[in-house]
Amino acid sequence: MRIKVLGCYGTEFLQFKSCGFLIDDSVMLDGGTIVSPLDLASQMEIRHIFVTHSHLDHIKDIFFLANNLFEERGRGIKVYSTEKILQELKRHFINGVICPDFTSIPQKDGSILSFETIKEGEFCSLPHGISFRAERVDHKVEAVGYIISCDRGHLVYTGDTGPTDHIWKVCNRLGNLLAVFIECSFPNEFQELAVLSGHLTPQSMAKELEKLKEKDYPIFVFHMKPQYLEAIEEEIMALHDERISILTQGEEIDL
């Protein structure tokens, strides 16, 4: 499983792009950044997008991808999430007002976008050997993280979350963790803001990682607010946990 970090920050700021992770060239994990790092040929390979929640920094490039590929026949893209999250996307974003409703504009061979409801706790299998399982996390809107399974084990992606319990309990039952992708949005001095907005700081992130029984896996940190990046990096280094790496966009990870 190869993961390309198209964007990994908590907002758009100068050269920093919001969250979008391309898996094996055809699957997106969140859709905050898709089109700007990819040429058209690479965009045409994308067939599946798994969305963690409805906040704009995790969905905005779904519109641009659909817009770019609308005239490409046979390029249907499935957008997956829980029923409530997809309802929010339909009502507030892909609704014909904020952007065209690409789920209802017909093409010769169907719409460019279709929504696929998945149930929490059940693996959704894709043709090329990986599966996605949505598990709830605690954010300010309906949100899930994903457990991504391949023949070698499981990867955990929290999406946006504050302190949470459910997804870690599920991971402890599955075992065989290949990696954990965990958000960390603010430095410790903004702990109160992090709690209010449903995010983590280095100190609260460390407490979340303690909830996992397995300890032998790499940890990749994402969703840093760029204006606080230096402080976040210093505080993560002060944890003295050699497993932790802070993601940078353009990075590629093989698991």
Describe the protein's architecture and organization:
The chain has 255 residues and is of the alpha/beta class. It has a single domain (2-254), classed as Ribonuclease Z/Hydroxyacylglutathione hydrolase-like (Metallo-beta-lactamase, Chain A, 4-Layer Sandwich). It is built from seven helices and 14 strands. The strands form two sheets. A seven-stranded mixed β-sheet has the order 6-5-4-3-2-1-14. Strands 7-8-9-10-11-12-13 form a seven-stranded mixed β-sheet, with helices on one face.
Give the N-terminus to C-terminus distance in angstroms: 5 Å
The CATH topology:
Metallo-beta-lactamase, Chain A
Strand order in the sheet with the most strands: 6-5-4-3-2-1-14
Rg is 17 Å
> Uncertain segments of ≥5 residues (pLDDT<50)?
none
The helix fraction, in percent, is: 10-25%
Total of DSSP H or I helical runs spanning 4+ residues: 7
Question: Approximately what portion of the residues adopt beta-strand conformation?
Answer: 25-35%
Class computed from helices, strands and strand pairing: alpha/beta
Envelope shape = globular
Query: What's the rounded overall pLDDT mean?
Result: 95
Quickly name the level 1 CATH class: Alpha Beta
